[in-house]
Request: fold
Amino acid sequence: MQITTFDDLIAAGHDQAAPQRFLFVFLKTVLAKDHSSSEARDFEAGSGGSLSAIMSLDRRLDELSDFSSIKTEADGLSQDWDKMLVACMSGDNGRMPTAEQAEEPLKRMIAEVETGGDLSRYICFDRQGVPLQFESRAN
Reply:
């Protein structure tokens, strides 16, 4: 199944045999402190910049209905984000992963963002729910 909307992602979660917990890291695109003048021009023109993790959430699949609901919840915590990175955790033996079990994967997601790691394995949406794609970095 190709994921082109948040609803597709929810549907894909429902198609899984194991219970799903969704992991969200909310990002802001920022201009690096040590930026060059050309990087500043690119950033002002709407391209380039670095990603910074603002906050994270985890939710059971049954707690999610649509993009608008997770956006509203996130905005209630902070409106200072422009991208949402998403991953899913599968349960074992029919058991939903707990919020405590989600902590370590969320920390790893945040670390990948903060260190400029490869984010191509995640699904990303902008504030309007438009999917964004990261290109895989060559090693």
